[in-house]
């Protein structure tokens, strides 16, 4: 469990990285130690050989053997004045296994030789060539057993590894504590604050207060504080709107009943023979009708959302003809021509009832706009297969030759209660139509609206 935490993973990474760095230090250190060891043997061998030469060879054999033993070598060869001379010698326990020249050795070669020496399974006899110190000749060669060299290399390497491990653990501990104090603890506090806020997001006292002194965490805390503040405000507004919506629904219900009664009375007033009453009665009936329509639309919009569309394969042409025929009967204005250009073979997958409501709403708005303009006009519905963003579908266009939409209506055309597309409208029809089209995975948009008329476009994906 600890290994899956941020602190745990950081701790392991620090240990690994420090050990890698120490390994990179370990190899050159061991190489340097081997080179110093061999150079010390060369120097001792040179001193021993110079002692023998100074005595003109009068040193007895036991003393010569003691000199070789103190130098830790078997043989010593000096080259002076281009003459190679075996100065000290003793029997070799075996053949010479390898020769190493220290005169022009580089770090890479020394490192390779040191690592090979440490991995040798058994000690061996090697020859070492180097430069004499204090101008004691041109060259010095020695032969020695690597048993002691291997032992000291492993002891030195063990000390390096132990020190590296101690340094890595100490460094990792310090970094671990630093991460806990400066990163993990502030993050844990932010997480606790988020959990506490999630338990009751409407409680403003649970909103986080930025406290971190680290710039990045401070920015995160401030962003979270702003998010929580905005969310709390939205939740409060939503609650107030829900309460207001319930009140409006109850008021609209009661008001609709009152207006219905008033409308019936207005119908009776319309039968009056008084000329002034006759002139005022139609306006009164119209006002009451609009008020009743407002109440009914508000109640309908406040109900549950429409169910998801039940997609069936259907022909579009008969559906468009039914919509246009219904509007002809509802309008009764012979000055308006209805034109449908839909191929009889055009099919799509859609909810027939919901699509009828969408088309009916758009055609009705067009008819009412033409009726309000009191001039002849044309309402045209066309449809064709098309491709939108690589997806095949059906594009339906509903256009009219009316006066166009007012600028204010275009700004919030598909938003509920933001103003209708016609005078007296409340802006629910197009909002519901756009919602139904989105439920089909399509899009409803206004193509144009000017003095030459208005055109809407519906795009529906064809999943048939």
From TrEMBL:
TM segment ranges: 12-31, 160-183
Keyword Amino-acid biosynthesis: no
Catalytic activity line of the entry: ATP + protein L-histidine = ADP + protein N-phospho-L-histidine
Record's protein name: histidine kinase
Residue ranges of domain Histidine kinase in the record: 250-464
InterPro entries on file: HATPase_C_sf (IPR036890), HATPase_dom (IPR003594), His_kinase_dom (IPR005467), HisK_dim/P_sf (IPR036097), Sig_transdc_His_kin-like_C (IPR004358)
Stretches of the chain forming a coiled coil according to its record: 217-244
């Amino acid at each position: 469990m600890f290994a899956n935490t941020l602190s745990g993973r950081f701790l392991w990474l620090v240990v690994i990285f420090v050990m890698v760095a120490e390994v990179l230090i370990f190899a050159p250190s061991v190489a340097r130690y081997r080179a110093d060891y061999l150079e010390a043997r060369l120097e001792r061998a040179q001193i021993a050989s110079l002692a023998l030469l100074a005595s003109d060879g009068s040193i007895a054999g036991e003393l010569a053997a003691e000199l070789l033993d103190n130098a830790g070598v078997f043989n010593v060869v000096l080259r002076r004045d281009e003459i190679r001379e075996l100065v000290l010698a003793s029997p070799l326990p075996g053949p010479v296994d390898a020769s190493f020249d220290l005169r022009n050795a580089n770090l890479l070669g020394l490192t390779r030789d040191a690592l090979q020496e440490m991995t040798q399974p058994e000690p061996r006899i090697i020859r070492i060539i180097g430069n004499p110190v204090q101008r004691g000749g041109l060259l010095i060669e020695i032969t020695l057993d690597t048993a002691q060299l291997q032992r000291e290399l492993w002891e030195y390497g063990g000390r390096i590894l132990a020190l590296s491990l101690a340094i890595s653990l100490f460094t990792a501990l310090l970094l671990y504590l630093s991460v806990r104090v400066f990163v993990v603890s502030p993050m844990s506090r932010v997480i606790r604050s988020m959990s506490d806020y999630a338990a009751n997001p409407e409680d403003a006292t649970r909103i986080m207060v930025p406290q971190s002194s680290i710039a990045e965490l401070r920015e995160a805390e401030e962003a979270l504080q702003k998010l929580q503040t905005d969310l709390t405000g939205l939740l409060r507004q939503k609650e107030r709107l829900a309460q207001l919506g319930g009140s409006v629904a109850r008021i609209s219900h009661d008001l609709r009943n009152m207006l219905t009664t008033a409308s019936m009375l207005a119908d009776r007033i319309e039968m009056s023979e008084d000329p002034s009453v006759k002139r005022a009665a139609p306006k009164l009936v119209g006002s009451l009708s609009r008020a009743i329509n407002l109440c009914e639309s508000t109640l309908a919009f406040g109900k549950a959302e429409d169910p998801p569309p039940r997609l069936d394969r259907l022909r579009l042409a008969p559906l468009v003809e039914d919509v246009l025929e219904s509007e002809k009967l509802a309008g009764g204005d012979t000055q308006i021509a209805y034109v449908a250009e839909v191929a009889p073979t055009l099919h799509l997958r859609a909810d027939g009832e919901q699509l009828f409501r969408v088309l009916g709403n758009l055609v009705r708005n067009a008819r009412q706009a033409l009726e309000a303009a009191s001039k002849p006009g044309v309402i045209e519905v066309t449809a064709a297969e098309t491709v939108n963003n690589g997806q095949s579908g059906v594009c339906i266009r509903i256009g009219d030759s009316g006066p166009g939409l007012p600028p204010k209506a275009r700004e919030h055309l598909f938003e509920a209660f933001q103003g209708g597309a016609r005078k007296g409208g409340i802006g629910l029809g197009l909002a519901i139509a756009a919602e139904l089209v989105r439920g089909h995975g399509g899009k409803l948009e206004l193509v144009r609206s000017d003095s030459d008329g208005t055109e809407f476009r519906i795009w529906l994906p064809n999943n048939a």
